[in-house]
Amino acid sequence: MRMLVVDDDPIILELLSEIIRSTTSYDVSTAECAQEALDIVNDPEGAPIDCFLLDIQMPGQSGIELCRTLRKSGRFPFTPIVMLTAMHEKRYVDAAFAAGANDYITKPFEIQEINKRLTSALKRSAHLRAFSNDATQEEGDREYGLLDFVPIFDVDKVVDYFALENYLPSLPKRSLFGTVALGLQIRCIEDIHRESSSFQFSGLIEDTAEAISDNLRDYNCLISYAGNGAFVIVIEDNHLPNKSRLVDQVNLVLQKQGTHLTMPGAKQIRVISGEFVRLMSVDREKIQGCLRDAQDTAYRHATETERNLEKFWFMGQAAE
Amino acid sequence: MTDLLALDNAILRVRTKFLALLEERVAILDQSLYEATENAEALENALFVVHKIGGSSGTLGLVALGQEAQKCEAVLLQEKSNTGSISSNGARAIRDFQAIAIATLSNSATA
Hints:
The structure holds two protein chains of two kinds. By secondary structure, chain A is an alpha/beta fold.
């Protein structure tokens, strides 16, 4: 296992190398700028990189640009990229996660914190890689359970759920408290999942992610798929979308792109939103609770809507 | 246990290098103060130095030095967006930081 640490401060490079060598089984390579990092990554004789630790402010290409370059190369879709930086401001945190970072640690850092965060990023990466390996073995027809996180690549503002959970505690306190979460739920998801193949199901999730992303392009937000047909959007409260309008627009895009035509019985695909849930605590577990609340309210709205529709049809038949 | 001891020793080694570098960095700040008036490069150099020190000194156990570096960086960032060069306010922040840095160096020399 090999980790690449990129930082223009030789002291940080040496410090991290010592910490990682003493507390993990990783081999550590270091680079003082993005170009040197890319040279290491592209060296055909070098061992593959299993984890990146990137500073942001460096001469030449920044760590955020390097992160984007690595993700866009297609060679590191699941490799953990952890930012380690003295830049605390929200715009850097936003840009790092939007570029594909999995986590964000601010300097000065605690040694135990580095270990904890790296271990957790590696666990998540191993989990996603296992999905990817299964998909290769079964020629793209991996069995996605209803609650599984379907990986989504190359959709603007869409990040892995684990990254979303790391993004929020990385925000400065004032920015975090000015953020709300909104759930969007695909209606009748249990039926859709039961009746469709995994290929169809993952296609539906990707199409929905694209439709949501398209409609939120003018908003400062991140979007993530949480499993069970639920998406969570975290967004600044000073510029919020109109929920009903957003839902209508997403449904319209899904209709226009013909997502339903790829599903068994060409059933219409519809999403519904929950309520805005305000983030009120810096505590990681409470933040995770808020994200779950956002999904729950959307799921409840979806269930109620289906129940009301059933009642409506039943009453209609009884009246005849 | 052995690993932890090795880590402690390693951090001590890095700290020694950091302190050696700190002397050079204090000298860069002197140069920045000397060239300060309407010189954007002097401000950038000073910012670079305090940014680096603020990022690593806390982890090396030099908490007060790190905090002073961050305070100085905040003032210099303000200068950057206001005048683009080091004003008297920025010069004061640099001198305050230098005082802490020199005290840190002399404490470590006597330790």
